[in-house]
């Protein structure tokens, strides 16, 4: 599993549209996921140790983010044939076990991950109410090894975006496992 770091935020870049199947049996679009004050799009998966290490924090922070009028959605971009732990059935199981407070969607064609420019799991994209990119950084200070009292950078950024429409000028890249591209998409 190659360790990747996300690039710097391209402030103002528009949020790509999508329509993807969720573990709840619905097809979700970007506009259905968006809240009145913005949208957080998260590329995650089931098997990545970086995602596993921060998942409980992410779930709790998303509950708080949604209280600020920002919709949250998680998308699994990985090749589920070569990585069966990321299968749709396993996505359903994890979402139920962890009681995800957001839709968990499968990007089977990987076209949505490409449209966003996602490179790893986890990869976070924070948009304002006009769906302009304002955050592309990590969840928490310390990454997959957060220390007690670590700053919840994604939560802070999304609260700022909800209140002002602008993300923080200083952002630190997220890091995680490379997206598991299908051979025809690699």
UniProtKB/TrEMBL annotation:
One Pfam family named in its UniProt record: AhpC-TSA
Alphabetized PROSITE patterns for the sequence: THIOREDOXIN_2
GO molecular function: antioxidant activity; oxidoreductase activity
Source species, domain of life: Bacteria
The protein's name in its UniProt record: Thioredoxin domain-containing protein
Ranges where the Thioredoxin domain occurs: 9-160
